[in-house]
Target: AraC family transcriptional regulator CmrA
Amino acid sequence: MSEMTPPRAIAPHALAAQQAELADRIARLTRPLGDGIHPTVLPQLQLARSSVPTPCAPNVFEPRLCIVVQGSKIAMLGGQVYHYDPLHYLVVSMTLPMMGQVVEATPEKPYLSLRLDIDPEQIASLLLDTGGQTARPGIARAAFAAQVTPQLLDAVLRLMRLLDDPQDLPVLAPMAIREIFYRVLRGELGQHLRAVAVRDSRPQRIARAVELLRQHFQEPLRIGELARAVHMSVSVLHHNFKAATTMSPLQFQKQLRLHEARRLMLAEGLEASAAAHRVGYESPSQFSRDYKRLFGAPPRTEVSQVRARIASGGP
Model:
């Protein structure tokens, strides 16, 4: 897979039939559960449903493939906006603090999607089997949206149908998942996913830096130690990290802290000062300033607004 073949032209009728069946299957499985993200018997696969558009909200996106079969959504990273809908899927190849918003959904025709967690080892195994490890990729943005193809949706459909056949699931699901990622790698922007799985490549080193920051985001950032841990100079780490994530390592750490503090206040009821301390802030006033800059309002105000919206039954 050292050379990527261009995707075939989309066949509207083929896609429409595949999307209709996928929408029916996801709707059937999620209707009793309501809006939200729902696990399946496959740990790697989750289903999403929203019957109304949602406000733009922060979230930490794990490495994943997201395929929309009804409605549409946007994700924002830095100044880049990614639209994904029944004609475009989204890939996030590294953990990223992003903003997300369902923009097209109604109770009669809800937003429906599935997301498949990305296991770098699965991608690396595919590359070894197809010769894709021979290329030395340059740094690439860690999120991208690309066109769906009938071949990709065919593999996705076979995976979804297996949810009705538990006896076949252990044997056939790994094969379907493998083909799904093969189709992404063969797609128009597959090189961006391939990049993080090529052993000891710069993208893989940046992915390792991202993971180290995620594991230790409460601790003071020592950029020299981080650079040494991923075998890069400080300047090369800064340049490549920003190219992949749109942020410097320090900005990335700050966003991880703020996202986690927001979760602690909303989910666990912590006061702003306690949440700030828990995520590594020494100055509550600095925390409040950073929080307002990212989320548009001071912590107490923004969290109260979210709670009021939830209490009123709004999105």
Summary: The first strand starts at residue 36 and ends at 39.
